[in-house]
Design a protein that fits this description.
heterodimer; A: about 775 residues; alpha+beta; Aldehyde Oxidoreductase, domain 3; Aldehyde Oxidoreductase, domain 4; 4 domains; 8-stranded mixed beta sheet; 5-stranded mixed beta sheet; 20 helices; 29 strands; B: about 500 residues; 18 helices; about 30% helix; globular
Chain lengths: ~775, ~500
Amino acid sequence: MTGAVHKSLVHESATKHVTGSASYTDDIRAPADVLHLQLGMSSHAHARIVNMDLSAVRAAPGVVCVLTAKDVPGRNDVSPWAGDDPLFADGLVQYIGQSLFAVAATSRQAARSAVDLAKIEYDDLPALITIDQAMAAESFLEAPNVLARGDARVALDTSPHTCSGRFYIGGQEHFYLEGQVAMALPGEDGAMTVFCSSQHPSEIQHTIAHVLHIPFAMVNVEVRRMGGGFGGKETHGNLPAAAVALAARVTGRAVKCRYDRDDDMMITGKRHDFRIDYEIGFDDRGKILGLVVDQAVRCGMSFDLSQAIADRAMLHADNCYVVPDILITSYRCRTHTQSATAFRGFGGPQGMLAMERMIDAIARSLNLDPLDVREANFYPAKDTPDRNQLGVTPYGMVVEDCIIQDLVGTLVASSDYRSRRAEIARWNSASPVLKRGISLSPVKFGISFTKTEFNQAGALVHIYTDGSIHLNHGGTEMGQGLFTKVAQVVADVFAVDPAVIAITPTHTAKVPNTSATAASSGSDLNGKAAQNAALTIRARLINHLSQRYGVSPADIRFRPDGVHVGLEVFSLAQVAASAYAARISLSSTGFYATPKIQWDRTIKQGRPFFYFAYGAAVSEVVIDTLTGEHRILRADILHDAGRSLNPALDLGQIEGGYVQGAGWLTTEELVYDQKGKLLTHAPSTYKIPTCGDRPQDMRIALYARGENIEETIHRSKAVGEPPLMLGHSVLLALIDAIAQANPDQGEPQLDAPATPERVLRALGGF
Amino acid sequence: MSAELNSVCFNLNGEKVIVRDVAPTTTLLDYLRDVRSLTGTKEGCAEGDCGACTVTLASPASGGVIHRAVNACIQFLPMLEGQAITTVEAIGTSGKLHPCQQAMVDHHGSQCGFCTPGIVMSLHTAYLSRADISRSEAADLLAGNLCRCTGYGPIIDSACSMFSVRSTVALETVIAEEARALESVQRTGCLVIRHGLQQFFSPDSLDDLLTLADRHPHAVILAGATDVGLWVTKQKRVLDTIICLGRVAELKVISVSDFAIDVGAGVTYDQLMQVPELPDELTRLMRRIGGQQVRQAGTIGGNIANGSPIGDMPPALIALGARITLASGHDRRDMALEDFFQSYGKQDRRPGDVLVSISIPRPASGDHLGFYKISKRFDQDISTLCGCFALTITDGKITSARIAFGGMAGIPKRASHVEAVLTGLEWSEDSVRKAQSAFGDDFQPLTDLRGSAGYRLGVAQNLLWRFYLESTGQIAPTDRLELGQLNLAGAS
């Protein structure tokens, strides 16, 4: 209406970010007697605790209380659902870094020093660290899951060609710049207020209530913003929040816990690493006929969200391609490592990357351009007649909105892919040490939580009698710009400047029973809920004005210059005051539940996703065949954000996602020693991309014809996770460069992350 | 000994501050956040690797003020004596943003915003000290500032655009004012901070430094704190006696002659890199050390004296034939740098010895240099291995070979077997192949989180080959991927 949506407004906190006035949890002014909490952590991966002598810890200077499993009045568990993540280990430790006890002291330093005085005696048990070890021991969280269509074995037997292989895909540390942090303030009647950095305040609320054995209603959780989340603050904020709440209960004082970076990386879960074994059958043109793929997933010591993550990996094993006969087996490996958790893409990236590598392997085996093989296998476009027959995913969902042909076609032209590919081959033949590679990889990512009940949201909008608007909803702000987008949506309803919308912290007392801000769903769900709240109020106002002025509702319009009532124009303040005087409610909740979706995870059939988001990237890389070092030279990206609510914010998600995806697959290496200790637990040893790793030539665009065929908020598409998978093109381009350097050595054996060492090894260089 | 100063005096956001009764290893970051409630400066890692805590440090210099971006998380409070700290809160307001802040807003340079104050302060420091910046220079400037959200493009755009409104005249006024304010916190005498069992000395003369080192032979000698800082923040060590050489002007001198560049032990990487006579290979290698914040705090002496097997200066300096001078009281000991490193964790430094200077011979014509750092990430990473080659070639024959590696042994170490094979041979492919097999005699590297033994040894051999290809013009030295800007002739 005013054009508040579809505009490149700056992030609502941009000015606060740059002046240092944006307040994060650790910046909240604490009461003077606040205590600082530090966790004591396990140094053994799998062991019985024979004895835990904490007397020296208790006697250390500044220590006010020490908490163990015995001190938990309710349930000693911080897991999202399975009951297998103890707040404090009780007799058994299952990974190095596991919480054993907590110290609350008068200073952070005192608490940090005190934990080192604990004397823990362990009786070691056999520890499984790697996927290979867990697979060999058949150590699984649950029985292997299968998703099948047709008879893939028969299809492989009858295929003119097959190829097979095994590769590993590494995990990834979130490396949110702000570590896990929480502060608890005890209140009256046993109530607890907690400020924290969480994507899921409701789950924090529930966890604390279970731990303290009090009703949900006695726990209030507030999150203004996070310094990055990426999935790492969906469940792994539960532990510090529960710990401070317990300490606050015991001491009656405010208690704060901020993980040191190294502790954070030792304690919290990461992206699941995968082992992929595949055999794929295809015809002379590279058309896929059948696929058998095993996804072995390292879940760590507990369930956390691993079921849903491993499921999503299965649901993205097809990516953009029709696979007539398919057998996917997913092994959810239980290991004695951190409980792997949500991370941008939530299993989708691993499932999808495996397929993209297979496509490249097919192309190389047939000596075709991988792009041709991709195009030969795409799902039918959205307006093609055979869509409902051919365009069906292995899980039985019709791909109704496929635009990948058009999107890829546009990108192929704008990136000059074909001629660059030819030029690179020529260049490589004359370059003895450096070799270049190029790859185009597409993305099709399903939008919705696969757990159907999570696809709901609530919002709360008030208009005050001065016309100012208070906005609250269940989504959390982690940098993605959700609050900006939702404010745009509400501003649009009242035709006001989004800047006048008062954005308020997420709070479990304002909007209850919320879902995590995750699955890219933040603006889809909360945008709609807030819009509904605003529309409810607007309808009341129109009704009131219509009655008061005897004007037809059709002649009442909210415009940027005011509310038009027939020929008269009022300010929103005048309208609000008038409604107040007439005793009309100026406050409304709003609610939204995603339509159309249904999913049965036991049989893996249904429509788990409301729609798909699409994108594609072309990456060009160069490798040094003497050292394995490499660099991204250029990236061309075209991404579908539907009718973008805010193009600037969406472009930010796309670029950030690509670079994060590229980092995952190149420099970001999680190294464990044989005993299960993570050796890369700080930025000195775990290397996320820096400024200079970004390709100097980067061309990013939104898909101009993007429009969601489903009725989403202003026909936009979710954009949080999908762009991460654009980074796949970097790994594929590296493999292309290796193949070009060693044309006679078959499919390159390159595991991710493609560190210089792995690249040199794949080249046969040492 | 000169008079004792028992407080720390500095300017903070334009205000003179005197701090008494403080634990000397209190970090600037904790002081800002916990004592001053200046919470704009963030802790992201507490080890100087993420840059979220970057602040601008101003120090008096001949003819004005030097501005440096430093990581507040690993600066101890007494190190700030006589300097001026500016934090993100003090450079602009929401109504009147500093040009670097405005640029970040205009280009959507923040998402979650947590790294943003540090990035703003890196930009702010650059704004004060340079007139413009290229995109690749911006990437270099910001290598010490990690951002997990943006992918960096909007931040580079901000860096490049902020200079368009820069007024040198207006800045001169600001800096002159800053210089005057700095004068008011200049004091002479030895800073002595005692707190509980801890004591911290910061003398302002070499004589006092050596006296103190003699008196406290087991004291920790502190320079830029880019390593020692982590002993406190990460290893939780309580350092009882610290002697800081940051105020000793004699140790910050660089003198250049026809034959050598003599460097005081307190010279920072950044200062040394400004010396035009420095061999290009060394400057290039040094660009790979840390990020801007580390290079503007860390010192050449510190990189040597801490004895790390993976410090990047020692292999290069050994290849160049550098010598160091240790002082103890009035005694001076001079030695070849490679002799300083005896075994892992053990150097030829006696209690009370202070490393005071490094003499770097200037290469002669006919000398070929190739310095290579291999790491998982190009910028701000620790070497998997660092290989430095210096050959003298006369009439096609190798007359002298100095080859040193970091990351291949418990100490920075010469490849003496390889050198022996090469010396006297023609500089040819055949000689390279012969010499490559000698690496195994020189090094039995470890497998660790940065790389396997096999990779290290293989790359060490390959680097000799790369050096040969470069020095004989078969590949361009600009074809190193570390540079980011490749000359891909024929590239579309």
